[in-house]
Amino acid sequence: MIGKILIFFFLLSFNTLNAEIKDQIILNLKNTNNLSFNFKQQIDEKIESGYCIIKYPKKIFCSYSSLNNKKIVSNGTSLVIKNDNINQYYLYPLNRTPLEFILDKDYLIQKIINSKSKILNNRYLVFTIKNESHEINIFFDKKTLYLTGWQTEDIYQNLVITFISNIKINQKISNSIFQLPSRK
Questions:
Q1: H helix intervals, the chain
Q2: Is residue 77 part of a domain?
Protein backbone atom coordinates (compact mmCIF):
# COMPACT_ATOMS: atom_id res chain seq x y z
CA MET A 1 0.00 0.00 0.00
CA ILE A 2 2.80 2.43 0.89
CA GLY A 3 4.43 1.64 -2.48
CA LYS A 4 1.25 2.62 -4.33
CA ILE A 5 1.03 5.85 -2.35
CA LEU A 6 4.68 6.68 -3.17
CA ILE A 7 4.11 5.97 -6.85
CA PHE A 8 0.99 8.18 -6.80
CA PHE A 9 2.92 11.09 -5.25
CA PHE A 10 5.83 10.57 -7.66
CA LEU A 11 3.46 10.71 -10.64
CA LEU A 12 1.65 13.70 -9.14
CA SER A 13 4.94 15.58 -8.63
CA PHE A 14 6.08 14.64 -12.16
CA ASN A 15 2.85 16.00 -13.63
CA THR A 16 3.20 19.18 -11.55
CA LEU A 17 6.78 19.60 -12.71
CA ASN A 18 5.70 18.98 -16.29
CA ALA A 19 2.91 21.58 -15.91
CA GLU A 20 5.38 24.13 -14.50
CA ILE A 21 7.77 23.51 -17.40
CA LYS A 22 4.94 23.85 -19.90
CA ASP A 23 3.77 27.06 -18.21
CA GLN A 24 7.28 28.54 -18.43
CA ILE A 25 7.58 27.62 -22.13
CA ILE A 26 4.22 29.29 -22.76
CA LEU A 27 5.25 32.38 -20.79
CA ASN A 28 8.50 32.57 -22.78
CA LEU A 29 6.51 32.43 -26.03
CA LYS A 30 3.98 35.01 -24.85
CA ASN A 31 6.80 37.41 -23.95
CA THR A 32 8.54 36.99 -27.31
CA ASN A 33 7.67 39.52 -30.01
CA ASN A 34 10.58 38.64 -32.26
CA LEU A 35 13.70 36.51 -32.27
CA SER A 36 16.84 36.50 -34.32
CA PHE A 37 19.13 33.50 -34.56
CA ASN A 38 21.63 31.48 -36.52
CA PHE A 39 20.32 28.24 -37.96
CA LYS A 40 21.43 24.93 -39.40
CA GLN A 41 18.90 23.22 -41.58
CA GLN A 42 19.06 19.68 -42.90
CA ILE A 43 16.88 18.72 -45.84
CA ASP A 44 17.41 15.02 -46.45
CA GLU A 45 21.25 14.85 -46.69
CA LYS A 46 21.85 18.52 -47.56
CA ILE A 47 22.86 20.89 -44.74
CA GLU A 48 22.51 24.67 -45.04
CA SER A 49 23.05 27.43 -42.53
CA GLY A 50 22.33 31.11 -42.15
CA TYR A 51 20.63 33.79 -40.13
CA CYS A 52 16.90 34.44 -39.51
CA ILE A 53 14.60 36.91 -37.87
CA ILE A 54 11.08 35.93 -36.87
CA LYS A 55 8.53 38.58 -35.97
CA TYR A 56 5.26 37.34 -34.59
CA PRO A 57 2.78 36.90 -36.09
CA LYS A 58 3.86 35.06 -39.24
CA LYS A 59 6.80 37.11 -40.49
CA ILE A 60 10.25 35.73 -41.22
CA PHE A 61 13.40 36.80 -42.99
CA CYS A 62 16.24 34.31 -43.56
CA SER A 63 19.51 34.76 -45.36
CA TYR A 64 21.42 31.59 -46.17
CA SER A 65 25.22 31.36 -45.99
CA SER A 66 25.58 29.66 -49.32
CA LEU A 67 27.01 30.36 -52.73
CA ASN A 68 23.60 30.95 -54.29
CA ASN A 69 22.63 33.79 -51.90
CA LYS A 70 19.22 32.30 -51.03
CA LYS A 71 16.71 34.33 -49.03
CA ILE A 72 13.35 33.43 -47.55
CA VAL A 73 10.85 36.16 -46.67
CA SER A 74 7.30 36.07 -45.39
CA ASN A 75 5.18 39.18 -45.00
CA GLY A 76 2.55 37.24 -43.04
CA THR A 77 0.51 35.99 -46.00
CA SER A 78 3.01 34.94 -48.69
CA LEU A 79 6.37 33.22 -48.61
CA VAL A 80 9.10 33.94 -51.15
CA ILE A 81 12.20 31.85 -51.69
CA LYS A 82 14.67 33.76 -53.83
CA ASN A 83 18.01 32.64 -55.19
CA ASP A 84 19.83 35.77 -56.38
CA ASN A 85 22.73 34.08 -58.18
CA ILE A 86 20.60 32.07 -60.59
CA ASN A 87 17.62 34.42 -60.52
CA GLN A 88 15.10 31.88 -59.22
CA TYR A 89 12.01 33.17 -57.45
CA TYR A 90 9.33 31.00 -55.84
CA LEU A 91 6.17 32.45 -54.31
CA TYR A 92 3.91 30.35 -52.08
CA PRO A 93 0.85 31.15 -50.00
CA LEU A 94 2.13 30.95 -46.41
CA ASN A 95 -0.90 28.89 -45.38
CA ARG A 96 0.28 26.03 -47.63
CA THR A 97 3.55 25.66 -45.69
CA PRO A 98 4.39 24.45 -42.17
CA LEU A 99 5.80 27.92 -41.44
CA GLU A 100 2.18 29.10 -41.22
CA PHE A 101 2.05 27.33 -37.84
CA ILE A 102 5.63 27.82 -36.66
CA LEU A 103 5.34 31.59 -37.16
CA ASP A 104 2.05 31.82 -35.25
CA LYS A 105 2.92 31.87 -31.55
CA ASP A 106 -0.76 31.90 -30.47
CA TYR A 107 -1.30 28.68 -32.43
CA LEU A 108 1.85 27.16 -30.89
CA ILE A 109 0.73 28.13 -27.40
CA GLN A 110 -2.69 26.52 -27.88
CA LYS A 111 -1.12 23.32 -29.22
CA ILE A 112 1.42 23.19 -26.37
CA ILE A 113 -1.33 23.66 -23.79
CA ASN A 114 -3.16 20.64 -25.22
CA SER A 115 -0.19 18.30 -25.68
CA LYS A 116 2.48 16.48 -23.74
CA SER A 117 6.19 16.89 -24.25
CA LYS A 118 8.75 14.18 -24.87
CA ILE A 119 12.41 14.39 -23.95
CA LEU A 120 14.94 13.94 -26.76
CA ASN A 121 18.61 13.15 -26.03
CA ASN A 122 18.06 14.39 -22.46
CA ARG A 123 18.52 17.87 -23.93
CA TYR A 124 15.33 18.90 -25.70
CA LEU A 125 11.63 18.97 -24.89
CA VAL A 126 9.63 18.10 -28.00
CA PHE A 127 6.00 18.90 -28.69
CA THR A 128 4.34 17.25 -31.69
CA ILE A 129 1.72 19.36 -33.43
CA LYS A 130 -0.62 17.68 -35.90
CA ASN A 131 -3.26 19.08 -38.17
CA GLU A 132 -4.85 17.92 -41.42
CA SER A 133 -1.86 18.62 -43.65
CA HIS A 134 1.22 18.84 -41.43
CA GLU A 135 3.00 17.20 -38.53
CA ILE A 136 5.51 19.47 -36.83
CA ASN A 137 7.90 18.70 -33.99
CA ILE A 138 8.83 21.82 -32.02
CA PHE A 139 12.01 21.65 -29.91
CA PHE A 140 12.69 23.61 -26.73
CA ASP A 141 15.96 23.61 -24.79
CA LYS A 142 15.42 21.57 -21.60
CA LYS A 143 17.45 24.04 -19.49
CA THR A 144 16.38 27.45 -20.82
CA LEU A 145 12.92 26.39 -22.07
CA TYR A 146 13.34 28.55 -25.19
CA LEU A 147 12.62 27.49 -28.75
CA THR A 148 15.59 25.68 -30.33
CA GLY A 149 14.18 24.34 -33.57
CA TRP A 150 11.58 22.35 -35.46
CA GLN A 151 11.12 19.39 -37.77
CA THR A 152 8.67 19.41 -40.69
CA GLU A 153 8.21 18.22 -44.23
CA ASP A 154 8.65 20.74 -47.02
CA ILE A 155 6.24 21.10 -49.94
CA TYR A 156 8.13 18.31 -51.76
CA GLN A 157 7.70 15.98 -48.74
CA ASN A 158 11.38 16.15 -47.78
CA LEU A 159 12.18 15.89 -44.08
CA VAL A 160 13.43 19.29 -42.88
CA ILE A 161 15.14 19.67 -39.50
CA THR A 162 16.04 23.19 -38.35
CA PHE A 163 18.09 23.89 -35.23
CA ILE A 164 18.60 27.43 -34.04
CA SER A 165 21.37 28.95 -31.90
CA ASN A 166 22.65 32.33 -30.69
CA ILE A 167 19.07 33.38 -30.07
CA LYS A 168 18.31 37.04 -29.32
CA ILE A 169 14.82 37.93 -28.17
CA ASN A 170 12.88 41.17 -28.67
CA GLN A 171 15.58 43.07 -30.54
CA LYS A 172 14.81 46.27 -32.39
CA ILE A 173 14.16 45.31 -36.02
CA SER A 174 12.95 47.09 -39.11
CA ASN A 175 9.66 45.96 -40.66
CA SER A 176 11.11 46.64 -44.11
CA ILE A 177 13.01 43.33 -44.06
CA PHE A 178 9.67 41.50 -44.29
CA GLN A 179 8.76 43.10 -47.61
CA LEU A 180 8.70 40.52 -50.35
CA PRO A 181 11.64 40.84 -52.73
CA SER A 182 10.99 41.78 -56.32
CA ARG A 183 11.29 39.31 -59.18
CA LYS A 184 14.22 41.19 -60.75
A1: 2-30, 99-102, 105-113
A2: no
Tens of pLDDT, residue by residue over 103-120, are 999 999 999 998 888 888
162-177 pLDDT, tens digit per residue, is 999 999 999 999 999 9
For residue 109, what are the CA distances in angstroms to 113, 131, 140, 155, 175?
Answer: 6, 15, 13, 24, 24
pTM here is 0.85
Q: How many CA atoms lie within 13 A of 20 on its CB side?
A: 6
Is 149 a member of any domain? yes
